[in-house]
Amino acid sequence: MRVDVVTIFPEYLAALDVSLIGRARKDGLLDVHVHDLRDFTVDKHRTVDDTPYGGGAGMVMKPEPWALSLLSISEQSPAGARPLLVVPSPAGQVFNQALAHEFAGREHLVFACGRYEGIDERVLDWASESFDVLPVSLGDYVLNGGEVAALAMVEAVGRLIPGVVGNPESLVEESHADGLLEYPVYTKPSFWRGRGIPPVLLSGNHAKIAEFRRTEQFIRTAARRPDLLASIDVPSLTATDRAA
Ligand code: ADE
């Protein structure tokens, strides 16, 4: 998969050199390119922002550097692939594991990291001629720009690419894989600072352990994220059960 990130702070993306994503890049599983938006300006001050039409606080990112950067990137798109342009924004659709899987199925992802009050809206419309365009939010809070959101999304998507995570089974058992939160985990020692572990985990009975973990997933999800329970597909749970 090819990933391009356009930003005025390329150094923010240095984290993509380390850990699993860094290794995936070295192994040729992920082809990541980070671009400085200022390299696509044509004035001597390398200006990327201007005042908003209609007035108001802050500055807006000028459209032309975005057009020039995106044109250059679309020329480098893998043959036959229509790139997905992800625009991190608190005004976007909220990112989740389902979206991460959708992104992982694409050949070419491009992240347009805005700063200030955002990017001139016409860029999104213009870009839709050659990109699928999707504004995406990391959650209901405001960051200073799209870089941290792009980092989070590249990591969530990258680890779904076959070969990036060493043991693919860990992807099956983690939070959100089946719509529920992950069960609690424990390691040695079995007694620590006055606290033991659930005895079933020492029983060697794999069916009982699986049942215990599944129950814990439901208890934890109900306590922390009851909103998730409404959308999971449990064949044994009828509509009447759900309503109860
Ligand atoms: N840029 C600023 N806030 C953001 C958020 N919550 N998600 C994605 N991009 C953002």
TrEMBL record:
UniProt keyword list: Cytoplasm, Methyltransferase, S-adenosyl-L-methionine, Transferase, tRNA processing
EC top class named in words: transferase
Protein name, entry field: tRNA (guanine-N(1)-)-methyltransferase
InterPro entries documented for this protein: Alpha/beta_knot_MTases (IPR029028), tRNA_m1G_MeTrfase_C_sf (IPR023148), tRNA_m1G_MeTrfase_TrmD (IPR002649), tRNA_m1G_MTases_N (IPR029026), tRNA_MeTrfase_TRMD/TRM10 (IPR016009)
Catalytic activity: guanosine(37) in tRNA + S-adenosyl-L-methionine = N(1)-methylguanosine(37) in tRNA + S-adenosyl-L-homocysteine + H(+)
Gene designation per UniProt: trmD
EC number: 2.1.1.228
One GO MF term attached to the UniProt entry: tRNA (guanine(37)-N1)-methyltransferase activity
Protein origin, superkingdom: Bacteria
GO terms for cellular component: cytosol
Entry's localization field: Cytoplasm
GO biological-process terms attached to the record: tRNA N1-guanine methylation
Originating organism: Arthrobacter crusticola
HAMAP family: TrmD
Role of this protein: Specifically methylates guanosine-37 in various tRNAs.
Similarity comment text for this entry: Belongs to the RNA methyltransferase TrmD family.
